[in-house]
Amino acid sequence: MKEKRIALLANVGKEKAVAIAGDIAGRMSRAGVTVVMDTATAAAAGRPELEVGEEMWAACHAAVVLGGDGTLLKAARLFAGPGVPLLGVNLGHLGFLTEVEPHELDMALTALLAGKYKIEERMMIEATVVKKSGTTGGRYLALNDAVISRSTFARLVTLEASVDDSTLGTFVGDGLILATPTGSTAYSLSAGGPIVHPGLEAIIVTPICPHALGHRAILARGDDTVRVKVNSAVAQDELLLTVDGSPGASLSTGDTVVIKRAAERTRLIRLTGRSFYDVLGLRLYYPM
Hints:
This protein is of the alpha+beta class and 288 residues long. 20% of the residues lie in helices and 39% in strands. It is built from six helices and 16 strands. Strands 6-5-16-13-8-9 form a six-stranded antiparallel β-sheet, with helices on one face. A six-stranded antiparallel β-sheet has the order 12-11-10-7-14-15, with no helix packed on it. The protein has a four-stranded parallel β-sheet with strand order 2-1-3-4, sandwiched between helices. The radius of gyration is 20 Å and the shape is elongated. The mean pLDDT is 91.
């Protein structure tokens, strides 16, 4: 029988998450399971011997993620490449992406070790920056969204969006959100975008505070390529690309952000049998 290897990633800013990580490490070790941690979790839990680099993630059968949706989004980017499935334990406020609550952890770990779970795959997007000079910047991966918005000054920016070879329009306002169906319940929803079932493949283009009554969110196909050109920014490097809430790149007039479906996919472990609509009602319509 192949040795089981479980990764633990915790929000180290939450004492409870770190304590649970240490407890899980002990329990898994006693069950004969190899446990590894990322650098921050290993340091916070006082288990430096469990620290491994990202090059070792591919050997893991699963990763247990302790925190809220932000922690799971971070884990999604880390583990998407090797395709490691994620079990999210909610220690945050909303927990829309996580699968179980702390009181369900015993059940979840038992099922995880027995292999009694399903895997749900989620579409991810990649964003690439093409500078005005034609040079290409880094590649940024996101499970929720890529956001192009002003950083500080309260002035309008002008963005020109196109889908494949067709011009979508010029958007004047605070910026644009390019969201996946998973991200449709996040920032895009707050900006007036639609809720989209995560089983669909689409890129949602949602204007942020548009200075035109007719500008509303648009759903592009999952295999479309969306390009957003900065026609006018407030000042040099005062426009930002953020991915899943993390800094991506500074943008200037003439730069273009290219967004398309990524080859990587986030694999989420499902145990409870709750559907997307169950979670929608529990977390958004009747939040705890």
